[in-house]
Write a structure and sequence with these properties.
With about 350 residues, the protein is mainly α. The protein has helices at about 5-15, 20-35, 35-55, 60-65, 65-75, 80-90, 100-110, 115-130, 135-145, 150-160, 165-190, 200-220, 225-235, 240-255, 260-270, 275-290, 290-305, 310-320, 325-340, 340-350.
Amino acid sequence: MKIISLIFAILTTLSVAAQTDREYIEMGTQKMDNADFKGAILDFDNAILQCKKGSTMDIKDIGTIYPVRAMAKEMCKDYKGAIQDYTTALELDHINPSEGLYDSRASCKSIIKDYKGAIDDFTKAIGLDPNFFEAYIGRSTAKSHMNNFEGAIEDLNKAITIKPGNAKAIQLLEQTIELKDMKNNLKNLVEVGVTGLVKKDSDLQQQIEYHNKLINEKLEKNDLHSAILEYNEIISLDPKNTKAFLNRGYLQSLLKNNEAALQDYSKAIELSPYDSEAYERRGILKYNLKEYKSAIEDYSKLISLTPKVGNGYLNRGLAKMASGDKAGACTDFKKGAELGSASAANAVKQYCQ
């Protein structure tokens, strides 16, 4: 955080201040060093009070006290108080505002779930410093919380261009892409429920439709456990329903019931060996479990079923990269890019140049 340098700047920039101001600031800074953040806040309170009574300090120098007190408030989890102090500091130095102040205020807003306000502040920080890596990272996280995954991915790609190969940015990019896919899949489940049902007699069909309706209601409330119970009922009625196993497995993976999810995906493949979605989902889960060799096998089967889709090559490339096969990974990334996968094209830039 760029703002942290202000702690050290205070003692050198306030040489013309009244002695009492300096003493309070010195005491507060020492308490910050000793992790006595509540005590530091009291000292900074007194320093600001003395300044308001009258001080020879420059208005800009007075403004440097607020962000340091804000940092102490952050350590005490008083994020709203910290936001107020960062705001005051920006108002006192509105002519030459610091991108670090906007970044710090944005981080506090994210913590209290004011994601729109956080995005606004991260954007202002980036406007002052277009290569502000941390601001792109912070803004991407806030965008993800608002389900703006495309915007989050764009910010992470920009961060990676600023710091190529940065492990944190690459990991966040992979997680955001996965989260985007999960949200889309969950949305599809809510919209269409169980699809591809085998045609049965009307009584059985009505029972399945009844449970399908309950599943949609549970998913709309994000009640995944109850939705799984309804899938159990459908499977008991129709033990060869591939989509029911596939969708139940997906919900199990969201709940981190990984073994159960793998079993359902495998059952779906057993019932429908040419279902590309089943191989893709099982491959993603195995990749997340660091079972890279097995994930590569599933992705290879996926590619054989959908050879013109770039994401299969992207996912297999990521698994190869994780297992140490960079040459094989780059071959897959390039093929995925040729097929129109923007993420594969980004992977070529990150890993293969």
